[in-house]
Amino acid sequence: MTDRDFSRQSFLGANSEVVLAGMRVAIVGLGGGGSHVAQQLTHIGVGEIRVVDPDRIEASNLNRLVGAKDEDVVAATPKVLIAERQIKEIRPWITVVPKMNKWQEVAELLRDVHVIFGCVDGYEQRAFLEGAARRFGVAYIDIGMDVAQIGDNSFAIGGQMIMTLPNGPCMQCLGFITPERLSQEENRYGDAGINPQVVWTNGTLASLAIGCFIKLVTPWFASDPKFIWLELDGNAQVVQASRQPNYISVPESCPHHGGKDGIGDPFFSLR
Amino acid sequence: MTIIYRSTDQLMAEVRRDLVRKHPFAEERVGFISVKAAQTQDGLLLIADNYFPVADNDYLYDDTVGAMMGAEALRKALNIALLNQVGIIHVHMHLYPGRLWFSRTDLREQLKFVPDFFKVRRNMPHGAMVLSPFTAAGRMWLAPDIIERIAEFNTVGSHLKVSRSADDGSADFYV
């Protein structure tokens, strides 16, 4: 098959195409960030991609939603079906599981995946999704961006890509999710209108997430991080490791998740 | 029914470190891993919770097998299942290269003690696992008389490792 030639990424390691084809991932949120993530996971040859989003495309999404067409706006196509179509057009052999639901309604789909990509809006949703990932021992990769007004007609674009692991610090331990941010979120999100999003920042953050995923699952680049937190300064167009964890005491083991009933399904029963 | 066993790399490293230690007289060591569980779309996810080594004194001298647990070792493991909402997996290691699977002795002995865990914790799966230094293979009891192979092993850490077993449950010794 013509689409099984991965020679140009063979430096990722012996049989890396087999490793990637054996991966099951979930993308929660198929907007600007999630659609980019889906596209790149497809190109690198991930074998099963589960896409979860309750929304249909609107005209305001067309500025950034990769794979979407004008006719989708007219038809109000579900975002997960746009993602499925895009994946299948690139690599028909990939298994796609589209669910037009809130992720909490199809949480079983997230349990046996190897990695969850969180492309959701807001700190609270991130915290809930990361909590679900850790409960089932899943690596979690989060991307998000925001735009803040810093003066008259002057805006700052920023974003982050964070990977947390079940046995490492969580986003609360790292100081990314804080009670203050959660409480502020209840009152506003973004100063430049409602949830401002732009395609180039979404694409940059998605690329960082895919690079992080590749390092996690292939031997391409030996590293031993307990977490990865990259910050994007969208104005200067610079990415760097966040220094925020240096200013707080990051606990060795996470006090926010785990514990006696912190993993698995607490109501599980064989019969 | 697809059964997936998932553990952190830290816990699996701890298990392997313990199992390769020399015992005063037994040829190999054994231990128990407690697991939590969750239903998936087409099967069962087991998430490793903790590791319990068998104490040196709880082995019986028996030169016909690699390691023979005494009654006290089994009593302690049963107690873990009794007091906690967990499944119990008996674990040992094979260090010789070759297809990774249980010996005939392993298969015979497991039938004697694994079903006992259902007497103390009948709503959780229990089983047995054999490790190589690199990979794993195993089987789970879903009831005292229903046994299924573990189809997939996930080790989660700064590197994520996924390995799959053959239809007979066995696995490659190397990655």
Structural class of chain B: alpha/beta
Largest sheet of chain A: 8 strands, mixed
Low-confidence spans of chain A: none
CATH class of chain A: Alpha Beta
Number of helices of chain B: 4
Average of per-residue pLDDT values of chain B: 96
Distance between the termini of chain A: 45 Å
Given helix and strand content, the structural type of chain A is alpha/beta
What best-fitting shape of chain B do the alpha-carbon axes yield?
Answer: globular
CATH homologous superfamily assignment of chain A: NAD(P)-binding Rossmann-like Domain
Assigned CATH architecture of chain B: 3-Layer(aba) Sandwich
Helix content of chain B: 10-25%
**What is the assembly state of the chains in this entry?**
heterodimer
At the fold tier of CATH, the topology name of chain B is Cytidine Deaminase, domain 2
Number of strands of chain B: 11
Total of helices of chain A: 8
Report the CATH architecture of chain A: 3-Layer(aba) Sandwich
End-to-end C-alpha gap of chain B: 24 Å
Strand content of chain A: 15-25%
Structure description:
The complex is a heterodimer of chains A (271) and B (175). In chain A, helix 2 packs parallel to helix 4 and helix 2 crosses helix 8. The mean pLDDT of chain A is 93. Chain A starts with 15 loop residues before the first helix and ends in a 30-residue tail after the last strand. By secondary structure, chain A is of the alpha/beta class. Chain A is 30% helix and 20% strand. Chain A has a single domain, classed as NAD(P)-binding Rossmann-like Domain (Rossmann fold, 3-Layer(aba) Sandwich), CATH 3.40.50.720. Chain B has a single domain, classed as Cytidine Deaminase, domain 2. Chain B has 4 helices and 11 strands; from the N terminus they run βαββββαβααβββββ. In chain B, a hairpin with a 7-residue loop joins strand 4 and strand 5. Chain B starts with a strand and ends in an 11-residue tail after the last strand. The interface between A and B is medium-sized, with 32 and 34 residues.
